[in-house]
Amino acid sequence: MSMTQQATPAVDTPPAPGRKQSDGRTRERPLALRLLARPEVGVFLGAVAVLVFFLFTAPPVRDGSSMANILYQSSTIGIMALPVALLMIGGEFDLSAGVAVITSALTASMLSYQLTLNVWVGVIVALIVSLAIGAFNGWLLVKTGLPSFLVTLGTFLILQGVNLAVTKLVTENVATDDISDMDGFTQAQKLFASTFNVGGVNVKITVVWWLVFAALATWVLLRTKYGNWIFAVGGNKYSARAVGVPVTFTKISLFMLVGFGAWFVGMHQLFSFNTVQSGEGVGQELIYIAAAVIGGCLLTGGYGSAIGPVFGAFMFGMVQQGIVYAGWNPDWFKAFLGVMLLGAVLINLWVQRTATRR
Fold first, then answer.
1. 132-168, pLDDT tens digit by residue?
2. Distance from the CA of 66 to the CA of which of 31, 231, 326, 341 falls in 20 to 30 A?
3. Mean of the per-residue pLDDT values of the chain
4. How far apart are CA 66 and CA 251, in angstroms?
5. In 10 A of CB 145, how many CB atoms?
6. Per-position b or e across 271-310, b if 16+ CB within 10 A of its CB
7. What's 277's DSSP letter?
8. Which residues pair with 72 in a beta bridge?
């Protein structure tokens, strides 16, 4: 037996095929974290949780007509929450959105009734007025550089006073006259406030419009140049302007979209109830903004989606009607609203930090 040992040469073993070396900086985050970084995922899970909660605590919610009513309440919030969300993604918000809805309805109602015109004339003039209010808000913000909070707060107070004062001056009352027997009312009602039957359940047309507007807003945000402009001006308007984004046009058009939403919801209210109370709308702007925030839109701008506010509005409708169906004191709605809003803000903060973490 030899006492010597033969040294074996060292052999470098190549890495197994398909395996990549990683220094930790380019490591892909888990799928769960990537999904949670989406602005609409958190509110979707929250909406499911709220739905399940009321399905167990409020048995009437399981009925088809009750769910149709919940969807209707959600749609009246959601139609306005969509343009408000787009505006927030663009870095601004509108405190006059709630009273602007009533301004639109009052304009169409009083113009048609007092001048004995076809109601479609009032509808068209109301659209022009609503778009003009949005354009004024956007123009004043761009030209002065004032925060949107101050600009739209001023508009809110102006519209609130004008709504009450002009209605009392024209009708000698705080509400408009009934226009249900005027020319064009039936056709306009079919467009803005009709009901159709699905499986024996009556569903309001606003639910359909809500989903159509949501699909359109999602397409605009994700598939068009205008959608890129919205995210760009919301992220940093100076950088956006430096790369050729038309910041002035984008800001003003976003406020005009809010005006369009106010017009549509105002027409729905008018043709649903045939008359309008001039003092309504105050406080609704906070509901629209809260639905957008709960839906994942950041108050700082540059982040959000159109789908998130859909679920946010559904949560509002679910809680608002669920409390009634459960037989609880409806005053608790405001408390639920505050809890949902604070929870959404905290979740959005966590999502933002997660999304930017390397």
1. 999 999 999 999 999 999 999 999 999 999 999 999 9
2. 341
3. 86
4. 39
5. 7
6. bbebbbbbebbeebbebbbbbbbbbbbbeebbbbbbbbbb
7. B
8. none
